[in-house]
Design brief:
about 180 residues; globular; 7 helices
């Protein structure tokens, strides 16, 4: 396995997740007015394409978990973009189910991500955060509870930071392995 390509795939894929979760979570956390939600959603389309590409590359590099995470993230962003651009915008109950279905998907992936390495633990925490964030958004949408929407937004912001840590850790770990050694 070529670690240069693996590092690039992991780095770019998790940074795309970090950007997407950060931009979508800021309005939910009430950091920005709702009028900024549309630009955040418009950013999802290119990030979804990038995640699909990273999913293909991760699959070709035998990184099964990352491939599932990237394909799932691309699907989540793509469907969110389509749903918000369509007439489903007014259907609050629809978004509750939408968030719930994706939370179930991320719960399954989270269970499959248990690992003992540093990057594995941070990846596991990222998936846990993504799952809990979407679950809180689902409950907030169904029950019209603004507090759960804000909670989901804050969990999403923490999740974005964890995705950024996975991305950076991949590069740092690769740099440590590839450090030049002194010849005798």
């Amino acid at each position: 396995m070529n670690t240069n390509r693996t590092t690039i795939t992991t780095t770019i894929g998790y940074m795309a997740w970090a950007l997407a979760f950060w931009m979508i979570s800021m309005p939910h956390a009430a950091w920005l007015a709702d009028k900024f939600f549309t630009p955040a959603v418009n950013m999802e389309y290119p990030l979804a394409i990038l995640l699909f590409i990273m999913g293909i590359l991760a699959f070709l590099q035998d990184q099964t978990l990352d491939s599932i995470v990237f394909f799932g993230g691309g699907g989540l962003l793509w469907v969110t973009h389509i749903a918000l651009a369509s007439s489903a915008v007014g259907a609050v109950g629809y978004f509750g189910w939408f968030y719930f279905i994706w939370a179930v998907f991320l719960a399954y992936v989270w269970v499959g991500s248990f690992s003992s390495s540093f990057i594995g633990i941070v990846r596991m925490l990222f998936l846990l955060g993504a799952w809990l964030s979407l679950l809180a958004l689902a409950i907030g949408s169904w029950a019209s509870l603004g507090g759960f929407m804000i909670l989901g937004g804050y969990i999403g912001l923490a999740t974005a930071i964890l995705a950024g840590i996975v991305s950076a850790s991949s590069v740092i770990a690769h740099g440590m392995r590839a450090a030049p050694t002194t010849a005798s």
